[in-house]
Amino acid sequence: MQRQRFGSDEGPGRNPAEERRLKRPATESEETGDDDELPPGTRRKMKDTQQKTRPSGSTAAGAGAGTASSASSVRAVLQDFLEQQQRLDAQRQEAAARHAQERLALEQQWRQEMQRLERERLMLEQAWREREEQRRMREEARAERRDALLTNLLNKLLRDDF
């Protein structure tokens, strides 16, 4: 920015700090011209703060370190993702195991209920058979008494006729 204002004065009278400032890329605060109004100690603090907030790898000197930290941050993100997936898988497996246990418990309960109903059915069927047997026995007893009465009656009639 200073270069454009004063033209190209690349003479030997320039100080080294100014040359460094001109060579480095301009930040937002330099573009707005806010540095010129700040005391020198404040500029250094702002520069340190900007470097801390600036993402890794944004400076030319730290490009190698930025790549390494970028790779490590990608690795950390992937590691977090892998751990999250493992936690989700573990949760799914636990849920599936709980579901299987519940299903087995319900199946066992259903089997027990079916066995109880089968025993009840067998008992009712046995009671029905017993009642039927008693009814048949009563019916046979009635038929025998009736036959005996009829036989007696016929015998009496036959005796009286002779």
Comma- or semicolon-separated keywords:
mainly alpha, 81% helix, rod-shaped, 162 residues
Topology:
Layout: H1 2-6, H2 16-23, H3 28-32, H4 40-53, H5 63-161
Q: How far from one another are the termini?
A: 160 Å
Main beta sheet: strand number and arrangement?
none
Instruction: Report the mean per-residue pLDDT as an integer.
Output: 79
Secondary structure: number of strands? 0
Rg over CA atoms, rounded to whole Å, is 53 Å
Structural class: mainly alpha
Shape assignment = rod-shaped
Q: Uncertain regions: pLDDT < 50 for 5+ in a row?
A: 28-32, 57-61
Considering DSSP H and I runs of 4 or more, what fraction of the residues is helical? over 70%
Contiguous helical run count? 5
State the domain count.
Answer: 2
What are the secondary-structure elements, in order, as H or E?
A: HHHHH
Strand content: under 5%
Coiled coil: 78-151
Region (Disordered): 1-74
Biased composition (Acidic residues): 28-38
Keywords: Coiled coil
